[in-house]
Amino acid sequence: MKVYNSILEAFGNTPLIKLNNINRGLKPAVYAKLESANPGGSVKDRIGISMIEDAEKTGKIKPGGTLIEATSGNTGIGLALAATVKGYNTVFVVTDKVSVEKVNYLKALGAEVIVCPNSVKHDSPDYYINVAKRIAEETPNSLFMYQYSNPANPRIHYQTTGPEIWEQTKGKVTHFIAGIGTGGTISGVGKFLKEKNPDVKIIGADPFGSIFRVYHEQRKLTEGIPYLVEGIGQDCIPENVDFTYIDSIVNVSDIDSFDAARRLTREEGIFCGGSTGTIVHTALKLAENLTEKDVIVFIVCDTGERYLSKFHSEEWLREKRLLKESPPVLRELVYKKRQTVRRPIVSVHAKDTVKQAVAVFNKDGLSQLPVMDFGETVGSLREAKVMASLLENPALLESHIEDIMEPSFPCVDEKTDLHAVKKHLTESPAILVTEYGRIIEIITRYDILEFSDDLI
Ligand SMILES: Cc1ncc(COP(=O)(O)O)c(C=O)c1O
Prior knowledge:
Number of domains: 3
Shape: elongated
Radius of gyration: 29 Å
CATH architecture of the largest domain: 3-Layer(aba) Sandwich
CATH class of the largest domain: Alpha Beta
CATH topology of the largest domain: Rossmann fold
Low-confidence stretches: none
Bound molecules: pyridoxal-5'-phosphate
């Protein structure tokens, strides 16, 4: 087992993983190049170190200097890791589209992070690349790394990622698929593989809204339209995209990208980001028309952890109307209620007096109450019914609740389809939500009106 002198030596030599489930019924072998296994969790670790070492060799950066970059996060993480070991400061300019996990990761590595609006055009002074350029001009002993045209970006993929894929497939790779952000991965790997075998097809996976596909096919510059996948696609053409090595570019929607990323995670155990989803979707579509002789390799760009607050969350997907699978379930309504109502279930005990129950109704402004005993439901009270009984017979105030209570509200499992929950609530004013048999929440008719808006 090798021992490394620093984290920098652990970059690259990532595993190639054969898919077994998500591609069932398809003829070609499909392999994932696990760039998420790099120390910083993305394909960008390779260029972080290569751009810094190139700047050192060419004397562009001096000890203690400041590295500045415009990034969708991953290049920043790769640069920050290497900068930490080598003793440089870092300033990263990101857009507000970048996940909070990536921003926090950069800050954890000691970087300064500046967030710009994603909605501005590339000629605006607030465009994130223009902001990074300006900061570099104003900061002494600094260097703008500029991954979009820095030759050390595609070069490291030509020197390492391409040869690794060639060796790992023993030269049998027939199709290579990557996303295109700066173009570094696809251009560097594409150049290497084409030099080894000009018949290898190089395919770019591009979000709908990005301008790469139309430019590749017609050499026409179109207007970009916003999309949600991070790190790939552009509204201008970076110098590092070398179209001579790209055979075709395929557009994929956000919904298909996120669905494919979630499937790769659940069916293959490869926890990945959204750009990997764009690529996997492209790979599986391509595989439908290929044979047993074909070998597809695609890039797993980064890990899923940095998107836990986004498409790896069902709530987020539902909010954006991007959830493909399963109908909404009761658990999601519980989560929504808890964001607003932050208190445990209000209940009464069977041996409490009716007077105590009335006090609870008044204090909490509730219309019904479960009667509970050691976490189990034993009955229920409705305010209107209790008040009507008290008008008839005020002496009931001193009685025990168990003398006047009604049957329990129904217990409904948290995984129940929300449409079925609605039906329960036409028959009962409230239900008790259970998780593996334990009561965790009460949902009333009011709650379903208040919190189920984006759910059903
Ligand atoms: C998540 C993610 N996927 C893919 C890419 C694309 O790689 P490249 O810039 O080499 O084209 C990037 C680049 O920023 C990225 O952040």
